[in-house]
Amino acid sequence: MLHVRTLARVKTIERNALLLVAAMCTYLIVREQDWVREGLGVAVDIASVFVLVLFTWVMLSGLRHVRALKQMQVDRAAAEDARDASEQIKADFVSFVTHQLRTPLAGIRWMLELAEQGELDEETASCVKDARLSAERLIALVNDLLDVARLESGRVLTAPEPTAIADVTQQVLEEMAPLAAAREQQVIVDAEAVPPVLVDPQLARQAVLNFLSNAIKYTPHGGSIRITAVRDGNAVRWSVRDTGIGVPTAAQPRLFEKFFRAENAQIVDTEGTGLGLYLVRLIALRAGGSVACESSEGEGSTFTLTLPVAQERKAVA
Amino acid sequence: MTPRTILLAEDDRFLRRAAEVTLKQRGFNVLLACDGQEALDMARAYRPDLLLLDLLMPRKTGMEVLTELRAQPGTRDLRVLILSNSSKELEMQSAKTLGVAGYWIKANLSLKELGDRVTALLDARA
């Protein structure tokens, strides 16, 4: 199937060739008329030679051009096939590796959990617990890598639907409540009055979770976190503001990059993967939205997720 | 009250052992299958209250087992819960179509959560 532009060019060349043949025929006919021969004499024969040579040259050029265009098209199709094949290979690899890593990791985690049930002295119990937490961290890393690979590939199936961001926030808050309480942090939410956004609810949950867990993690004991959502034209801006360590100015442009971690963040948490914010950005872009960060080092940060409002469908009779 | 019976189909011996211990601790009667064919045979023979089904197993895959169970009148309504480490969307969709009580990723569950959830599932049964 030829690309539209190439098809148009081939058609133009074919049309020009036809015009040229018609002109040539006309010339040949006119040339044979007695009045032309008598009037112009030898000049007509000389002109004929030039015309013939020109005609042949133009026709051959045209043919070469068409052949080159068709080859270009074949090459382009082959490149697309190669790219699709490599995407498939990558997807299969990621699937396989995820599964293969998860199985022994689950084994380690579960076995350590069983060991913790036994009678252990304090030190051993502590070691076993730390080993289990390490295993859980690895499992979380595998999950993050899987999410990243899937979102990066253009082929992942997402199911966007009208989603109430306030409900998603509530669910995530319930999960994170114990953690915030342990850090004696105050969390305030004001996200009711916005329309539903068009996003895959699982991905929305992931994005909210990542922003919120960062806010909790990088805000000291006794700090406060405020979540708001406002309508902005055809979009909803959902923001988390914290009183945490903030983001240094130099780090701000790179914050949503894959694997990037700001230096002050690395001091607070040596275990982070640098994938959390990158994932939120991928999710936002996939939904047709965006992410942003405003921050002052040492004072706090405001992270914003902007998502498009779900257009109301007309009711079907 | 007679203890309920769970058939656990899992080819990895560590996961199998850990899950067996946990479920027994919760008071369930636990049967073990180490591959797909064994799982199918035992499901037909014992009609457990719940089948915990791994997907990647030797001899028959979890999907093949599920398909065959659903094709027979005797086991069509058998309660099945997928316990997998694969997040392949295709598999999740197929499982949903065949009818399962859930699709859980083993690595994302602690043993405690596994026990809690299975208990909740079987307790909620009418």
Description of the molecule:
Chain A is elongated, with a radius of gyration of 34 Å. Chain A has helices spanning 4-32, 34-40, 42-117, 122-152, 165-182, 201-218, 263-268, 276-286; strands at 161-163, 186-190, 197-199, 224-232, 235-242, 290-296, 300-308. A five-stranded mixed β-sheet of chain A has the order 2-4-5-7-6, with helices on one face. A two-stranded antiparallel ribbon of chain A has the order 1-3. With 317 residues, chain A is α+β, with helices and mostly antiparallel strands. In chain A, strand 6 and strand 7 form a beta hairpin. The two termini of chain A are 41 Å apart. The mean pLDDT of chain A is 87. Chain A is built from eight helices and seven strands, in the order ααααβαββαββααββ. Helices cover 62% and strands 14% of the residues of chain A. By secondary structure, chain B is α/β, with parallel strands linked by helices. Chain B has five helices and five strands, in the order E-H-E-H-E-H-E-H-E-H. In chain B, helix 3 (62-71) links the parallel strand 3 and strand 4 (80-84). In chain B, helix 1 crosses helix 5 (111-123) and helix 2 (36-46) packs parallel to helix 3. The radius of gyration of chain B is 13 Å and the shape is globular. The interface between A and B is medium-sized, with 20 and 21 residues.
